[in-house]
Give the backbone structure.
Amino acid sequence: MKKRDLIRFEQFDIALQRYSAERYPLAGIADDKTRAVFVHQLIDSLHRTEYPRVLSTRTMSVRRTDPMDDEYFDPVRGAVYYSSLGNHDEACWLIFLFVTFGKGRRTGWRLIQNVYGRLGEEVRWDWAAASETPELMANWIVEHAHELWPKGTPRPFGAHRQHEQIAPSGRTVETYVRWIGDAGHRVKFEASAAANNGDPRRTFDALYREMAVVHRYGRLAKFDYLAMLGKLSLALVEPGSTYMAGATGPVTGARLFFAADARADLSADFLDTNLAELDTVLGVGMQALEDALCNWQKSPRKFKPFRG
């Protein structure tokens, strides 16, 4: 463990013990071993949630945006590249595709590359093309579903959308484009920020609720998409809640964390409120807390790093 993480480990361990003694008993991490495993997961989660901010400070190659470049294509780095040029729409679009299709454990970025690059055609399904005719892109995805995921090949979706199918994602794309609207991402997000007095948490919540219109975009997809926009400074948003309603792994983890019982009768509202209070002490952000709880509950007494 690096020196910075060793310092964090000690700080978090002390903070959790103090919180448990003075505010609310954290029964699930009462012993040293389970608390140490949770802290390890929290630090591991922080590495992932902080990394996009690190990337946003770097200079990216245009090759990161080329879906035909198997070696260099990367949708997040590509978004950083477009953002640096002031192409806000294309940056946000790549983040949407990144969250929608993810990175397959065995297939990497293949699915995003094939969708964004139209299976090797000369033109891309970039924001200009998708926003002009979203129904055509939706139909294209449906028509090419078998080529995008050939029968007998590994599942191409990333871990957070591992149960998805190709064809319905056409409707996902179409409803997303229509939700953003003709004026584009910047106008959409700035209008929401203005309506919420520039409060990043209120704006996140408003956009999160609006995204209910995006087909098959559930709790985690909406949360991940908006959180990534915030970390890359593409929108003035920050999650002020873990949005436990509708969650599975994080709810199990939070119940285990607070009550030492994965089936404890603790509501999503209770969990959200208490985790928000806990973060006033830890200061790690709601995404890191949600992610850590989800991964910790899988192995509370032995640290197993998340690998997608």
